[in-house]
Write a structure and sequence with these properties.
Layout lengths: L1 H28 L6 E4 L6 E5 L9 E11 L6 E12 L2 E14 L4 E11 L7 H8 L3 E13 L7 E13 L3
Antiparallel strand pairs: 1-3, 2-3, 3-6, 4-5, 4-7, 7-8
Amino acid sequence: MHRSLLPRLVVVALLALSLTACAALEQLRAFVQAPRFEQAPGQQAEIRILGPSRSQPLGGAGVRLWTRVTNPNAFSLTLGTLRGTLRIEDARAAAVDFPLGLPLRATEQTVIPIDLSVSFSDLPGLADVVRRAANRQPLAYHLEGTIGVNAGQLGQPTFGPMTILRGEFRGVQ
């Protein structure tokens, strides 16, 4: 009887040890902070009207969001994904799904462009935005979604949904 308990005790001990290790890893993941995004100082977000094309029969807009990305962590990580929705003046303008692969050293900041294409045929709710853009009025935007990072031994956490970036277009090019 004593011998039959030994394998069971070993299995229970290994299971308890693995659960403890998983809990410790989850606690470490809690220390990973999401990269911060903000409109890059000194570089305005750009919006330009695009004429009709084969892929956009009613035309569209090219959008470039100059973004400063900051790694607030005391360790390096890789910004892996950015998924979400761009809204201009609260109207849904474009879906965003980028595999970025941007390495960020500890506490590093870098400026990157996020380029998007908005088709007018898909966005009847943007008529007022187009009119305001043509009149060179400022247009507020915000990018909502999730951010995925690769933090090495600490895992691959995803942050969000949240407002990732907000800013303003100041005229059409």
